[in-house]
From TrEMBL:
Residue stretches making up the BPP domain: 381-747
GO molecular function: inositol hexakisphosphate 3-phosphatase activity
Leading EC class: hydrolase
Name under which the protein is recorded: 3-phytase
Organism: Thiorhodococcus drewsii AZ1
């Protein structure tokens, strides 16, 4: 987009909505390469230079200006910069140029234009004046380029994303869904369409986005309103659109002068950092009389809701945009106004060469609108990039949906527990909660072998589950699965039958009817973990309070009739720094059965805490990790322990806000080791927005010789996107099974793999 109104001299040229689709098979790498599954995160940056060219600068008989997009050709160490000249001053074109960063800086004389390629449609000569509005450019694997055009909504000129060969001749049109085509009441807004374009590093996925909301999706950005931009993701292996995600564009930053004058803010560029779904996004705002405000954001698209099925994102009943659960997540990295004295109309960016000191260069370029009051500006940054390793699952369970349609399981997957068979480890089970849907039992192949809803759907809510081994019940030693029932503020207990591989209800009628004694239906039993006391040998269940700051430690009891009851033996109070106990809610907990400590994750504040797990342990705690750490992003959810030899091993923490798993030493002061993600592979999608997790270091047959990690996937794909009043959401969830060695070996220094050091029955 240029910061000017449509030129009335432009000729109207309306393109047909029909498109030609040419499959791109062979242009991209295949899914499942572990090296391509790692996540890259920006941890720091440095401004390393600025170079400007005056308006009117000429090269090869063309005026250099309107540079709206830029891409880097690493093989030839050259850049390609796209002009957004609509074939008015010269044919639509892109320039080749070199940028010398060999000394780690960008200085005057470091940029040289070396060539120009003029764009041509499939048939005929150059594009007619006004027949194209080129904005984004991405280097294709075959030496050609993809180019995005905004079109012209005022003349019903459709936007496009097309491929041009190395000679500049169009030879491919990607399909554009009808919702984007401009009409009087829908489609793109003028000058607010496909401004951005970028390929993933493996060259398989192509991203573009509308700069602001489509007409039917809600308002464009104003001083008061955000705008719902759609990010469109293409799979170049098929040539088809893979999905659409919502990016929330910030409101206009500054009031124009006069107040009724033109002002805007929009998403002008995207840049894929990895093949895992991490992006950089640039928003450019302009207010008359004030100038440009340009900000760079780090974006996580993993697990974002696919809204491609919705032609409109407007909730018609209330006349406001839907709340999207979730949109892509973003975090501001920098304001270019803090780096340079004058910020021009920055619109394009690309990763350049690696700098001599090992940092990654980023080049940003401005569209000067061919205006004498502006200039063509190049800005260079050095980025510090951290790589988060990826562990690959080997299977996933059937998906669960709340409606139970098109899926074998009804409910909401939440928390798993891995039960070890007493004599046949390969016959071990994974027991998991489905909230309103009760519980489900899987074998180690992910097959459902039992599902039970012990009451009418919604009359119980099994939130978390953990195990008790060798519990003395009615004169026998049995294994138990203990569930927290959030709906009824109590526990549900089942005996595990190893021969039939089924759970049998053994909850006593004397089980406390309420744990926390609050009858408002909200501050009830939530998170749960079990523990056997080191000093008294008694079995306990720790239960957190939803919307509260309490943790109850309940002693599990043989009721004398083959059932299990419980009594509250201790009540822990979590800190309440905000003064409101609801802010101190926790769910994730795990008790170290050998070291006698209880780890608690406060979801949104403070961080991960460590208490004594012994019944007389009191309220004293130590802080394992502050929630302000860069590798934790709220909510902080599931906790689980990997038991290594001699008190070694790891504490795993689900950082739900960025879909990573932080690893800490189990011993000593719980030093941070690193983080990892659960990536997609071989037809299995990533695990995102993870709640519960469980890990076993014991060998479980030939499939899991070093143990098993099971995590909940809170944003499972294929999605089940639906409307829930004012919200659009995905209610598809399931569990991913990851062999422990896939986690351990993903780290630069592999983690411990000791499968014979832990037996929960000893």
């Amino acid at each position: 987009m240029s910061n000017h109104r449509s030129n009335p001299r432009l000729l109207a040229l309306t393109l047909s909505a029909a498109t030609i689709i040419v499959p791109c098979v062979g242009w991209s790498s295949t899914r499942g390469d572990s090296a391509n599954s790692e996540r890259r995160t920006i941890t720091g940056f440095e401004f390393i230079g600025e170079v400007s060219f005056p308006t009117g600068y000429r090269f090869d008989d063309t005026e250099v200006g309107g540079l709206s997009g830029i891409t880097y050709d690493a093989d030839d160490n050259r850049f390609l910069a796209l002009s957004d000249d609509r074939s008015d001053l010269a044919p639509a074109r892109y320039y080749s140029l070199t940028i010398d960063l060999s000394d780690g800086h960008l200085d005057s004389g470091d940029i040289a234009f070396t060539g120009v390629t003029k764009l041509q449609p499939r048939f005929g000569s150059y594009f007619a004046p006004g027949g194209i509005d080129p904005e984004g450019i991405a280097l294709a694997p075959n030496g050609g380029v993809f180019v995005s055009s905004e079109g012209d909504a005022s003349k019903l000129l459709a936007p496009f994303v097309n491929h041009f060969n190395r000679f500049g001749i169009q030879d491919l049109e990607l399909e554009i869904d009808a919702k984007y085509l401009p009409t009087a009441t829908s489609g793109i807004r003028n000058n607010l369409a496909f401004e951005s374009l970028n390929l993933s590093p493996n060259k398989r996925y192509l991203f573009t986005a509308v700069e602001n909301a489509l007409v039917q999706d809600g308002p464009q950005a104003t001083l008061e309103d955000k705008s719902l931009s759609r990010i469109l993701k293409y799979d170049l292996k098929t040539g088809k659109a893979l999905g659409e995600m919502v990016y929330e564009v910030e409101p206009v930053a500054e009031t124009p002068e006069p107040a009724t004058a033109f002002a805007t803010n929009g998403l002008v560029e995207l840049l894929a950092l990895d093949d895992n779904g991490s992006l950089l996004a640039m928003e450019r705002g302009f207010s008359t009389g004030k100038g440009n405000v340009v900000k760079l954001y780090q974006v996580l698209s993993q697990g974002a809701l696919d809204v491609s099925a919705w032609d409109s994102l407007l909730w018609k009943e209330e006349g406001v945009p839907f709340s999207i659960d979730p949109p892509v997540q973003k975090q501001e990295l920098l304001d270019f106004g803090d780096l340079v004295e004058t910020v021009d109309n920055l619109e394009g960016m690309t990763l350049g060469p690696v700098l001599p000191d090992g940092r990654q260069s980023l080049i940003v370029v401005s569209d000067n609108n061919f205006s004498s009051t502006q200039f063509t500006q190049f800005i260079a940054l050095a980025l510090n990039i951290e790589t988060v390793p990826a562990a690959r699952p080997v299977l996933e369970t059937p998906r669960t949906t709340d409606a139970g349609t098109d899926s074998p399981l009804r409910g909401d997957s939440d928390d798993p527990a891995i039960w070890i068979h007493p004599s046949r480890p390969d016959k071990s089970l994974v027991i998991a909660t489905l909230k309103d849907g009760g519980f489900v039992v899987f074998d180690l192949g992910g097959t459902v072998i039992q599902q039970e809803v012990p009451a009418e759907y919604g009359d119980i809510r099994f939130n978390n589950v953990d195990l008790v081994y060798d519990f003395a019940l009615d004169g026998k030693r049995v294994d138990l699965a203990v569930f927290s029932d959030r709906k009824n503020d109590t526990l549900a207990v089942y005996r595990i039958d190893p021969n039939r591989q089924r759970l049998v209800a053994v909850t006593s009628s004397s089980m406390p009817a309420t744990i926390f004694g609050v009858d408002d239906g909200s501050a009830t039993a939530y998170g749960l973990c079990t523990y056997r006391g080191l000093s008294d040998g008694a079995d306990y269940a720790f239960v957190t309070q939803a919307d509260g700051n309490k943790i109850a430690q309940l002693r599990l009891l043989d009721a004398g009739d083959g059932t299990v009851s419980a009594e509250v033996a201790r009540m822990i109070e979590l800190p309440v720094p905000t003064g409101d106990a609801e802010d101190s809610q926790s769910e994730g907990m795990v008790a170290d059965r050998e070291l006698g400590v209880l780890y608690v994750a406060m979801e949104d504040i403070v961080g991960v805490l460590k208490f004594s797990a012994e019944v007389d342990g009191g309220n004293d705690y130590s802080l394992v990790q502050s929630i302000d750490a860069h590798f934790l992003k709220p909510d902080i959810e599931g906790l689980t322990l990997y038991y290594g030899p001699g008190g070694t091993g790891y504490l795993l923490v689900s950082s739900q806000g960025d879909s990573t798993y932080a690893v800490f030493e189990r011993s000593g002061d719980n030093a941070y080791v690193g983080s990892f993600v659960v990536a997609d592979t071989d037809g299995i999608d990533q695990a995102n927005e993870s709640d519960g997790a469980d890990i076993i270091s014991t060998a479980l047959g030939s499939r899991y010789p070093f143990g098993l990690l099971v995590v909940q996937d809170g944003a499972n794909d294929p999605q089940n996107a639906l409307q829930d009043e004012e919200e659009l959401e995905n209610d598809s969830t399931n569990f991913k099974f990851i062999p422990w060695e896939n986690v351990a070996k993903s780290f630069p220094e592999p983690l411990i793999m000791e499968p014979r050091t832990y037996d929960p029955r000893q």
